[in-house]
Amino acid sequence: MAFEGLTSRLQNVFSKLRGKGKVSEEDVTEAMREVRLALLEADVNFKVVKEFVAKVKEKAIGKDVMDSFTPGMVIIDIVNKELTDLMGGSQSKLAKSSKPPTVIMMAGLQGAGKTTTTGKLAKLLQKQNSRPLLIAADIYRPAAIKQLQVLGEQINVPVFSLGDQTSPVEIAKQGLQHAKDNQHDYVIIDTAGRLHVDAELMEELKQIHSETNPDEVLLVVDAMTGQDAVNVAESFNQQLELTGVVLTKLDGDTRGGAALSVKAVTGCPIKFAALGEKIDALEPFHPERMASRILG
Ligand code: GDP
């Protein structure tokens, strides 16, 4: 289960606080020291932890809280609210173009779950009565096109492909035209990933970007990779101006670092969370629900 370690450590801290009728400044300082360690151990970015703890402390050490009837509970509420804010505050919705089709470009490193997420997103949109078209622009990973076609067939969503001999930029361009000609209201472009961020990959993504002018550029990152996921998001964002992040593999035993740091470090909201390999295991990301889940 995701966040297991973090949740149990935070629960420990809070049960101590809750047990106290009166809470002293020292109690808060001690609790915050433990929260800090719990977050660091969960692989949350160092700077993010520092700022987070400072904010909570500032709000918790005050006459209103100390004199309240249940100070422990009030402090837990403060932590909950700050965790929610850290992950973006409220749900960040998918853009919708006033001039269809809405273009969504998917990016990410190989293995992050980009192709799978492309299929899942199409399924979500289809459930909302949209008519998405998938564009197979990952011509480098063997079987990526086939994988997308199989996903498309599974959910009955068409996949535009020109095989693996045409350039991804050309595929994206023609795919977009095909969507316009066939009244699709969304196109989702599955782009190529690499094992590492490299200049060639970025150049190609930039070209696809300038050719298709996407409404959304979603970066798919593997939550299991913790701080690496955040670093990847930061480097993509510097070059591509992401509009959102999709966190995958939250069903695994991720410690929480990526979920809690990515918004604060990159400024990019998490728009979706993937919680399994199945086609319907994708949901809009709700910071407040995630915070409650982390707090257990
Ligand atoms: P891509 O190289 O980024 O396109 O990655 P794929 O979409 O091929 O996914 C890589 C692997 O991760 C596949 O085995 C997927 O089934 C798996 N995967 C993707 N998303 C999730 C998820 O949310 N949870 C789990 N457990 N596995 C996932």
From TrEMBL:
Domain (SRP54-type proteins GTP-binding) ranges: 101-296
Domain (AAA+ ATPase) ranges: 100-247
Any GO MF annotation of the entry: 7S RNA binding
Binding site for GTP: 108-115, 190-194, 248-251
Enzyme class: hydrolase
EC assignment: 3.6.5.4
Subcellular location: Cytoplasm
Family affiliation: Belongs to the GTP-binding SRP family. SRP54 subfamily.
Domain comment as written in the entry: Composed of three domains: the N-terminal N domain, which is responsible for interactions with the ribosome, the central G domain, which binds GTP, and the C-terminal M domain, which binds the RNA and the signal sequence of the RNC.
Name of this protein: Signal recognition particle protein
Parent-record interval covered: 1 to 296 of 461
